[in-house]
Structure formats: structure tokens, C-alpha cells
Amino acid sequence: MLIRAEFEKLEEIKYISHLELMTTFRRAFRRAKLPLAYSKGFNPHIQLALAQPLKVGMVGWKEYFDLQLNQEMEIKDFISLVNQELPPGLKINKAVSIAEDSKALMATINTARYIFSMVFKQENIAEEDLLNRFLAEEEIRVRRERVKKGDIEINIRPMIQRAQIIGPGKWLFQVESGSERNLRPEEISRALADFSPDVAYVPIVNIVREGLYVKVKEELYSPLDEKIVGR
Which of left, alpha, beta for 158 (phi over 0: left; psi -120 to 50: alpha)? Predict the structure, then answer.
């Protein structure tokens, strides 16, 4: 049985790393006494796969994982048993059973939505005008940091699908986030700060990943949607 689950990672636990998050889930699964499936080989491990890693210090409202079990169980029991073992700030909200040959999460998800709590250097900023001017740029170039290969300069404008102001100082960016092209939130922060002297760099702790999605044509779907998993 292959389960795909949606979970939230909130303020209480936002400073743990991707690796620590996986360890936390594995411990919870064992304590919940789930019928876990293990990989074969010299060092068997729980067959757990998370979607695109969330930056340390960032809250995520709609995050995802796939988990392989070696026997069937009720989805409601799965959610209840695991949530009892998870720490505050980490909670499974939804789950579905998907086909065993379903495409991997990392290869399925191609879009992310981030909410920026903007930091302005002066009051009474014309936010709508500022955002429109930013989006009107044909090229928005930033430096992409690469540990092993060295930094490069990239144009991030084609990776911004849309952006809008959803409240005072709250800007939502919908961007490419997949295995082929991926726009990092800190690159948007850097680009905004470079674009206008009125905008300060927005730190990771001021950004929420609202959700990860599968974009098909112009429609956004949850990775749990039956149109995506075909259950």
C-alpha cells in the first residue's frame, strides 16, 4: 500500500532540517506501529520520500510525503495513529492511497506558492505599483549560489508564474518548483531588494510556503488530487 500524505510544518518546529524532519517521521511511524515496508539490501530503511525540502526556518502549510506500507490499513487510522506520535507543530491533515506505480513526488510537483511578509524601508509604499513594475521587467537577474560548481547569474523572471498582493505587506508568489526548474524563495528576496531601494531583503523566517502543487496547463492541483494520482 502506497500512501501520499499532506502535512503542515509550523512555527514550533520550523528550525529542524530536512534530514531531521525525515528522522522525526520515521520515529513516529515506528511508535505508531505501522506495517512499514523496508528497502532490501545490506541496510534496510523505511520507504519514505518527501517532496521538495523546506528551508530551515520556513513554515510550510501544505507539504507532502509518500510512504510504503506492507499491508492495507484505513486512511483515517493512519492519520490518527501518526498524529498522536508527532511533536507540536507537525501534523498530517490529509492522506490518500495511490497506485503503486505512481510518479514520484519530486517528479510530479512543479509549482510552489510562497507568501512574503514584506519589509519596507519607509512608510506608505505604493505596493501595487511596486509589484507591477517588478513584474514588468523582461529580465530579473540574480546570483544563484552553488556550493560545488560555483555561483552563476540567472534570469528568474520566466520562473515567476504570477504574483499578487493578498494583504498589506503580504505578497504571494507562484513560481516554478520542480526537478527541472526551481526558483528559490531567497532569490526572489534578493531580486526585490536589488530592484527597489525601498524594499529590504525578506529573510526566510518571514516567508511561508503556502503549498506545493502540480500545474497542468493553467490549473493547479494538489498532489493528492485524483486527476494526478489516478486512484
Answer: alpha
Residue 18 one-letter amino acid:
H
Burial 178-210 (b: 16+ CB within 10 A, else e): beeeebbbbbbbbbbbeeeeebeebeeebbbbb
Provide the grid cell at 28: 513516529
Number of domains, the chain? 2
| Shared domain check, 99 and 31 | yes
Give tens-digit pLDDT for 10-48: 999 999 999 999 999 999 999 999 999 998 878 889 999
Q: Where is 117: in which H helix or E strand?
A: strand 111-117
The candidate with the shortest Cα–Cα distance to 209, out of 7, 65, 41, is: 7
Domain extent, residue 199, equals 111-220
At residue 227, does pLDDT exceed 70? yes
Joined grid coordinates for residue 151: 555561483
Are residue 134 and residue 81 in the same domain, yes or no?
A: no
